[in-house]
Design brief:
By secondary structure, the protein is α+β, with helices and mostly antiparallel strands. The chain is built from four helices and seven strands. Strands 1, 2, 3, 4, 5, 6 and 7 form a seven-stranded mixed β-sheet that branches. Helix 1 runs antiparallel to helix 2.
């Protein structure tokens, strides 16, 4: 039996609430558990693109999020949803992403996820960096997001 993203996310949220109740700083093993929550949230967030589920995408975006684009900064969930709607039109996703690095502050309140962005054929076309915040309801949501072309360092 496979576990769907909503079940995984619900379990992660319950675990996050329990950890939050335990104190304001976390031991290394607790930070690893929080990082796993953020990694799963990022994967579920990315799955919204593959599933072509624009409303689900919005559920991962904080009300006060800032998403940095090439031309402008999208401020707030409503503007982010409007700005990203074009990526959810059509049968095929124009790109995908996945986390390859996740780090959580010792307070357990903020996390960074980053990784590759790929075209539909799987070719790397950039990288993303997202800052996640554990909000009052215990859910991790993106508050800052920025992508860039792949690094071509010597």
């Amino acid at each position: 039996m496979t576990t769907g993203p909503r079940v995984v996310l619900a379990a992660a949220l319950l675990a996050g609430a329990a950890i939050a109740a335990a104190g304001s700083t976390f031991a290394a093993e607790d930070l690893a558990a929080l990082a796993a929550q953020v990694r799963e949230a990022e994967r579920a967030f990315a799955k919204t693109m593959a599933d072509r589920d624009h409303p689900a995408f919005g559920s991962f975006v904080s009300e006060e999020a800032l998403f940095f684009g090439r031309q402008e900064v999208l401020r707030g969930r409503t503007k982010v949803m409007e700005g990203w709607k074009k990526y959810y039109e059509g049968k095929e996703a124009p790109f995908s992403w996945e986390p390859d690095q996740v780090e959580v502050l010792e307070s357990g309140a903020l996390a960074l996820s980053s990784g590759p962005v790929r075209d539909p054929q799987g070719k790397p076309i950039g990288t993303f960096s997202s800052i996640w915040r554990r909000e009052a309801d215990g859910r991790w949501r993106v508050i800052f997001d920025k992508g860039c072309p792949p690094c071509r360092c010597p």
